[in-house]
Amino acid sequence: MRLAGPLRIVALIITMGLTWILVTILLGGPGGGLPRIQQFFTSDTRARHMGHICYHYSEPRARKYKCGLPQPCPEEHLAFRIVSGAANVIGPKICLEDKMLMSSIKDNVGRGLNIALVNGVSGELLEARAFDMWAGDVNDLLKFIRPLHEGTLVFVASYDDPATKMNEETRKLFSELGSRNAKELAFRDSWVFVGAKGVQNKSPFEQHVKNSKHTNKYEGWPEALEMEGCIPRRSMAG
């Protein structure tokens, strides 16, 4: 009978100890606060409302394909996206098959015409250069596009002013690459274009916005242009 008192004390100590351990687990230990308990409730709510999880989580983003296209290109096609410069502030971008060929980050764009030459069979970049069409020498551009090989793809994005230094030969060469708008390109127009050496018809990949104080988006410049699409690879024979 004399042991009853000490046994009660031991039982009480054990009970208090177990209670402390349980509270520590639920509260996540020192500094844990209520998040652990809230996690239990959240998990339980999720388990009981699996059919409504979409209301508690953000919708998954739409999948993007090469160069950010909304859908994949067919086989034997090259995915591309071209963005012209915005006024004289934001430089142009040329992306092909998820590779950025020209951009401000790559530090290979400049005022005027930004041109990337690509092997039409392999899709590999041959050369990329910017030509100043305001204060530069147009002969540098002519030397660049005159000797193009058959099947070479030509990607062009304007920045600031694409046309002041253009002459008749330059416009003729771009027209032969498939451009419809090169002949009328003027001071501070926005222009993006994809052509090829040896094409028989005009290119479907071209956009042009004229510089007009009545319609310009920026003070002194029209809106920037963005164009994307899928270009058929050239055959070895073509």
UniProtKB/TrEMBL annotation:
Question: What positions does the domain ILEI/PANDER occupy?
Answer: 111-198
For this record, the Gene Ontology CC terms, alphabetical, are: extracellular region
Keyword Disulfide bond annotated: yes
Chain segments annotated as transmembrane: 7-29
Asked if the keyword Signal belongs to this entry, the reply reads yes
List localization entries. Answer: Secreted
Molecular function in Gene Ontology: carbohydrate binding
The identity of this protein, by name, is ILEI/PANDER domain-containing protein
| Pfam name, any one | ILEI
Concerning its family, UniProt says: Belongs to the FAM3 family.
Q: Which UniProt keywords apply?
A: Disulfide bond, Lectin, Membrane, Secreted, Signal, Transmembrane, Transmembrane helix
* Source species: Myodes glareolus (Bank vole)
Tree of life domain: Eukaryota
